[in-house]
Amino acid sequence: MKIVIAGAGEVGTHLAKLFCGDDHDVILIDSDEEKLRNVASMYDLLTVPGSVTSIDDLRSAQAHNCDLFIAVPPYEEVSLVSAILAKKMGAQKTIARINNKEYLLPENKEYFRQLGIDEMVYPEHLAAREIVTSLKQVGTRQIFEFNNSKLLLYAIKIRSNAPMVGKSVAEVNSLHPNLYYTLAINRDGRTIIAHGDEMYKHEDLIYVVTTKAGTTRLLSDAGKFQYEVKNVMMLGGSRIGLKVAKVLENDYHLKLLEVSRSKSIFLADELENTMVIHGDGRNLSLLKEEGISKTDAFIAVTDVSEINIMACQLAKKMGVKKTIAEVENMDYINLAENMGIGTIINKKLLAASYIYRHTFKANVSYSKCLTASDADVLEMIAHQGAKITKSPLRDMNLPKEINIGGVIRNGDTIIPNGDTQIQAGDRVIVLTLPVGIKKLEKLFL
User: Fold this and answer.
1) Bridging pattern class, strands 231-235 and 297-300
2) Which residues contact 185 (CB under 8 A, 6 or more apart)?
3) Has the keyword NAD been applied to this entry (predicted)?
4) 397 and 425 in contact (C-beta within 8 Å)?
5) Cβ neighbours around 340 below 10 Å, total
6) Cα–Cα distance between 3 and 366 in angstroms, integer?
7) What is the spatial distance between Cα 354 and Cα 205, in angstroms, rounded to a whole number?
8) What is the pLDDT of residues 134-164, one digit of tens each?
9) Residue 381 burial by CB count (10 A; 0-12/13-18/19+): exposed, middle or buried?
């Protein structure tokens, strides 16, 4: 597939990394030649210096005959114009980054399709939704929901007190068959596809598929204790912070701390049931005064990754069980994970995940790049005659880089075992390492 990426910011650069790893023909256009040189030194792609809204420059980037055009510059208007021009020039499919939720309304999406924009991605909206979802289940780092939450994929950090520590994956599976299934283990920064003889260890971050019925057993085996989240404190009145607050304020006791006085006044006018406090959330005295010790969850979404990490660390030391930090600096993600920050949100990775599924030849209805791992989670639809439907899983000889953890069939959910046979029309939850992508596609085509 020939893919043109307009914009060499962090989203564009991350997409270039993903697509180059999948052997696509990638062309990156940006007016910043230094950014282009840096990307070209790391990945096998073509760079074109120029404006993403110049017809001549877009033609030089081969936008007129590309399969996929992705506009991800920092400004919404530039992104929209770039995608519209590319479509009019002949791009087969266009995706534009936006900053306005109203564009995603069904009637408005159709208007943009008529203009030539096939898909739109709103990173802040994706990030806010991720934060809200993460509050639904305590004791987990990430939650991925399938089939209206009937099937769930949890990322869970296990400690030495977890009953599963010291046991093998096969041993734990045999104790609770069909309740949950471990897909992968992230250990010391390395992702291990979980096979039967792999042992659970202290500090492992495990990715496990289960159902609502199996969640209690899974969390118990992982040594997690349940509690209800009632009181939430949030640091930062960013666009993400405002979106999250509007969703949470009617269901939780919410306090929002914002260091800017003018922004605090604006937030107080916008929010009806949120206590907005003008102050620095890094101030320990202020946190104590505002009842940090009685807070069940702490969310840090300022524009500075370092502040968010530090604030969550401070909250954890004050006894807060659930912490969520927006970490946009890619270099800090592993640091935040190793420091024990609960849930890490990166809107660039979320946007890249949303876009990534459009590059598959197979039918992919959902994709997510895991924050603390180099693996991807996909929901793939099996077609009639696909190799994956030919025999039970135990006889499939699946590549070692791939693991299948769940099946959705006619609205019902299945935690698979060796006897499970995928059928045409099944939605299959798969975790794969980057080197397994091409092999995975062949199974489902």
Assistant:
1) parallel
2) 191, 192, 194, 198, 200, 204, 205, 206, 207
3) yes
4) no
5) 12
6) 20
7) 23
8) 998 788 988 999 988 889 999 999 989 999 9
9) middle
Instruction: Give 295's pLDDT tier (boundaries 50, 70, 90).
Output: very high
Domain shared by 41 and 86, yes or no:
yes
CB-count exposure of residue 40 (10 Å: 0-12, 13-18, 19+) = middle
Residue 85 lies inside a defined structural domain of this protein: yes
In a domain, 79, yes or no: yes
Structural domain contains residue 338: no
Q: What does the block give as tokens for 388?
A: 């994956």
pLDDT digits (tens, 9 = 90+) for 10-38: 889 989 988 887 778 999 999 999 999 99
Structure tokens at 278: 């003008």
Q: Find all residues with CB under 8 Å of 332, minimum gap 6, and list them.
A: 305, 306, 309
> pLDDT tens across 297-334, in order?
999 999 999 999 999 999 999 999 999 999 998 889 88
First-to-last alpha carbon distance for the chain, in angstroms, is: 16
336 part of a folded domain: no
**Which residues, other chains included, contact 289 with Cβ-Cβ below 8 Å and sequence gap of 6+?**
none
Calpha distance 97→175 (Å, rounded): 46
What residues make up the domain containing 15? 2-121
Predicted structure pTM score: 0.88
Q: Which residues contact 42 (CB under 8 A, 6 or more apart)?
A: 17
| Closest CA relative to residue 209, chosen from 144, 132, 162 | 144
**CA-based torsion, 222, 319, 124, 7: positive or negative:** negative
